[in-house]
Amino acid sequence: MPERFELVKWYLDAVEPDGAASIAYWASLTWLGVSVAWHNATRYAPGQPPAERSSLRAVPPPVFEERRVAWHSERVGLETTHDAITPGVSVTLLDDARGRIVWECLAPSARTRFTRDGAATDATGYAERMTMTVVPWELPIDELRWGRWMSDDASQSLVWIDWRGPLPSRWVVHQGALCADAEVRDDRLAMGAGHLSLGEPRVLHDRSVGKLLRSLAGMARIAARIPMAWHETKWCCRATWSDHSHTSTTGWAIHEIVRFS
Q: Closest by alpha carbon to 19, among 207, 251, 255?
């Protein structure tokens, strides 16, 4: 009988007007007879090395109610709030004999406050929760593309997930609604309502996920099963949305490519 796998992963981010990006994760994983929780917060200021903190100590997950996501961890010195501006959406990405993947895009665009060690920063940001009962690197996917963009006033948003390989699938959410006609490229997204052009990217991180998890105390048994080839690159950039009335709106995007082989 296969070992039970269950992963709940929260992702929270914020980008300040000057492009400084903050990203926080909270994750809970049960697998191979091990249950472990992990959380992390990193600030990526332009021209400076990432300022990262992580912990395997148990803290409560973020809370979502009345269009607000709130989270607090003394362990990493962070308190966050995301007040959603555009509506969220919940999508079942997979539901078959392999397991189930539910993506909850809770705040596609939000007014955000990240408080680090008592210093508060106002920004625009994004929040999601992913729940999985299928081992992600065992899916027939070669590459995963994910990204989110919002206008500087957070009134407009675009989020995408693009699976490439033997199980190609694509989900694009514009203003809280799924778009069936979208095309995703590395530097551009196009759909019936308009297109998003991604600008010059700044690398936030470029890393082997297997090596990262192997470095965490208590994760060795789980991390040993994660392919070393599983690699993640994440960027931040300015991006411009143009609709068919030739109206353009700019804002910050964060996007990534995960390669499984």
A: 251
